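Readers outside the structure-tokenisation community will struggle with the description of the input data as it stands. I therefore recommend that a typical entry be quoted early in the introduction. An entry of this sort, consisting of the sequence and the corresponding backbone structure tokens, reads as follows:
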Amino acid sequence: ISEGVFTMLVNTLWVRCHCAVLLSGHFPLVCSGSRVAAFSSFPFLRARKKKSEYGCVDTERYASLVRAAVSTRISSQTPESIEKEDRWLYGSIIRSKAEASKMVKNPYPLLNDAKGVVQSDCEGRPMSKIPLQRDASQPAIASVTKILQKTMSAKQAFCLERWRRKKIAELGEEGFKEYTTKLFMQGKLFHSAIEGILTQENSPKDDMECCEEVDGYLQSVGHVLDDVTGARAIESAVHHEALQYLGVVDCVALYKGSLCVIDWKTSEKPKPFIHNTFDNPLQVAAYIGALNSDKNYNYQVESGLIVVAYKDGTQAHSHWLSAEHVQQYWERWLLRLEEYMEKA
């Protein structure tokens, strides 16, 4: 056989073998000396295997550690071991005891049985405006405002002090004094304007035109004043003889047909929820209890209303205190009163 024929036969056999290997799916792993290796589609199969970096690790030395790691699927730490470790690092745990809810030592009723049924028909009845008077011969009787200030919570005192320091940082000492004086005068003018609206026949619009300083406040409470009728008391003093405290109610009138104590407030920040008013509900409850006890008033009240007015004329937020709510705040007021008496 000639050399050319031999070469053709070898090439033919090589092609047939290569096709058979491709169709079978079995590729030779070591073909470095054959022509198949030259035509392989997977050159990385011919690459020399890299030596692992873990090959030089002393496996006998770390055998126990490996066995401990793979012998369990959960952490070796437990709540007991963590607590033991924390005790060793930070010392013994001091668990605070839950503060027991305080109970009123001397409960006193909110309503006065001697006055009979609560009256709601106030149309045509005389309006009271009793000035606040103190008897010099008797020890000074604390006001509702003073009692609440002296017994406020640490959190509330902190917030008040932070607000004061912030304002002093912005305005300075003298500027802060002028600012608080202006707020006081605006509140006084606002209450005077409300009194003029409730006691005179002129409309709220007329009062707004003659009092530019509180124009925004009056505009803010306009929708509330539309539902207030039959005023029975305006800026009138109340005195609880049994519990020995006094105060001055802003207003006692019908609100949507229900007789209540109304407390007018001004605020720079919105107070859409009752908890935003802090101790105001306790103040209203204290006034209601004192009015019901006071002999100068031949009627009594069960409900209250807190109205928060805004200088920019934004619609005021009104918070209605039902008889049930007033009773709850009355009990909290009694606790604050007892705390004040103990300190005094």
Q: What stands out?
A: The two ends are 132 Å apart (CA to CA). The first helix runs from residue 3 to 24. Residues 29-45 have pLDDT under 50 and may be disordered. Residues 238 and 296 are 8 Å apart (CA to CA).
